[in-house]
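re the bet — no i am not wrong, look at it urself. input seq straight from the record:
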Amino acid sequence: MTEHLSDSAVVDVIDGYSVRLERAADIARRHGITRQGVYKILRRNGITTAKGKVAVSCDACGAEIRRTRGRLRKQKRHFCGYDCYYAFLEARQEGSYQASRQGQRLARARVAEVFDLQPGHIVHHEDRNCLNNSLDNLRVFANQGDHIRYHRLGPDYARPIWDGSKA
């Protein structure tokens, strides 16, 4: 069944499994082969398919940590513990709390000029600088849940209802 795949398709299977961390079932569906066919291609090319953890580095301190492939797919950032997670959050915060609240108010006013902003909508600063209120830096989410999903999982899991970079 896997003999009909071109060399570029075999490269895509290997890249999808080992680099993009896609599920074997998704790769199989894309190439019209079985999941077992995907595993055969990987084994033939020296890629281990044993269930286990993959080594990645902590986003805060750079230490090597091991995570399952599923967890790597679901989470955008990886930390070795709570200390590194909170250190990462503190390092990314710019300005004081008051400055960020004022920036959020100004951002809502700026977006309201060009978009019908409702009370439950959340205005997001793409560069995370609450003082940069240019329209191309602002996005609007329908609710806080979508906003959190966008931060934690990325744009594939939550799309803004208004995107200032496309307006």
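see?? The longest strand covers residues 53-57. told u. also The chain has three domains: 1-50, 51-92, 97-166. so pay up
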